[in-house]
TrEMBL record:
Pfam families: Phage_integrase. The keyword DNA-binding applies. Residues 113-310 form the Tyr recombinase domain. The lineage of its organism: Bacteria, Pseudomonadati, Pseudomonadota, Alphaproteobacteria, Acetobacterales. SUPFAM superfamilies: DNA breaking-rejoining enzymes. Keywords: DNA integration, DNA recombination, DNA-binding. One of its GO terms (molecular function) is DNA binding. Belongs to the 'phage' integrase family. This is Tyr recombinase domain-containing protein. One of its GO terms (biological process) is DNA recombination. InterPro entries: DNA_brk_join_enz, Integrase-like_cat_sf, Integrase_catalytic, Integrase_recombinase_N, Phage_Integrase. It comes from Acetobacter tropicalis.
């Protein structure tokens, strides 16, 4: 009887239940984005196994599935492997499962860091393409470029996080990757983008949505892959319409939203901004100031960060004016008012 009870309890711990327990337990102190995205990725990729007892999953099954994912999405496969191995390792230490089916899975290759920095022509092309796109993604992309913050952080921006004079945006620790609260200076162009927007109503309450960028009034924008694809399509269309332009002035399509952060800091270095200031702008915990100095460094360089983002915004507008490919006026869709 006791053995049957133990077996029933083990069978009740399905993969779906284990993911939830891992999210509520091991990930409790993780960043909000990882706590949300890692379990969601596992549930989506292993949807057909969610009702299986976690203890019944085998290395052979995990290897076969991740090999299939690798064929099309190698980076995603490596991240799924890392999440699965971490989750089952946590469960194994608590005697919830007899072993870790991910521990002996072999992943080909390794994840390498992207080093792409947008050219001035690409910066201008992204800015112009975003200006031709309607709310929410048109102004979203422009603000992403101007603030150099992470995609999910900008997407989840709330009106309550913006200061009354629109000069700063305060991110609470629960919304950032490193769980460290962050104050972002808003340059004049960034302030103008926000000034041109009005809160979208929440259809359930009739009240204004708390989110600056939302498609439904209930939640922040998502669907970034489609948005990036649309930006690329607009960039290509605008480049094609620019007859007589040199090939070097046409935008290259091998870029990601995250590359905007690297591009901004690269340009800041050219403009004389110190690496430690750029690290503060990006909200990197470990950067140019390390070790004991980082522990005792209490100065947040707010004035210097503001100057850096102002200089970056001025640079963006400069390359748009001097070297960018301006979209035809007839195709421009104004920002939502």
């Amino acid at each position: 009887m006791e053995r049957q009870t133990a077996q029933a309890a083990a069978d009740a711990l399905t993969l779906g239940v284990l993911i939830t327990r891992w999210q509520d337990g091991a990930l409790r102190d993780s960043s909000a984005s990882y706590r949300k995205d890692a379990p969601a990725s596992l549930r989506s990729s292993f949807a057909g196994l969610l009702d299986r007892p976690a203890r019944s999953l085998t290395t052979m099954e995990m290897q076969a599935h991740l090999d299939d994912v690798t064929l099309r999405y190698p980076v995603m496969a490596r991240r799924l492997h890392a999440c699965g191995r971490s989750m089952f390792g946590w469960a194994e230490k608590r005697n919830l499962v007899p072993g870790n089916p991910f521990s002996d899975v072999v992943m080909e290759g390794r994840e390498t860091s992207r080093e792409h920095v947008l050219t001035d022509a690409e910066i201008a092309a992204v800015w112009n393409a975003a200006g031709s796109m309607p709310y929410p993604f048109g102004p979203f992309v422009r603000l992403l470029l101007l603030t150099l913050q992470r995609r999910n952080e900008v997407a989840g921006m709330r009106w309550a996080e913006i200061s009354p004079d629109r000069s700063t945006w305060t991110l609470p620790g629960g919304r950032v990757k490193n769980s460290k609260g962050h104050i972002v200076h808003l340059s004049a162009p960034a302030q103008q983008i926000l000034a041109d927007l009005q809160p979208v109503p929440d259809p359930d309450t009739g009240m204004a949505s708390p989110y600056v960028f939302t498609s439904n009034g209930r939640s922040p924008v998502s669907g970034f892959s489609k948005a990036k694809k649309r930006v690329g399509e607009v960039m290509a269309a605008q480049a094609a319409e620019s007859a007589g332009k040199k090939p070097s002035a046409l935008p290259e399509q091998d870029w990601r939203f995250h590359d905007l952060r690297r591009t901004g800091t690269t340009v800041m270095a050219r403009l004389g901004v110190g690496h430690h200031i750029a690290d503060k702008v990006l909200n990197h915990v470990e950067g140019a100031i390390k070790g004991v100095a980082a522990i005792y460094q209490r100065h947040d360089y707010l004035a210097e960060r503001a100057a850096a983002l102002d200089a970056w915004a001025a640079y963006v507008l400069k390359v748009v004016k001097e070297g960018g490919i301006e979209p035809p006026a007839s195709n421009v869709v104004p920002l939502r008012r």
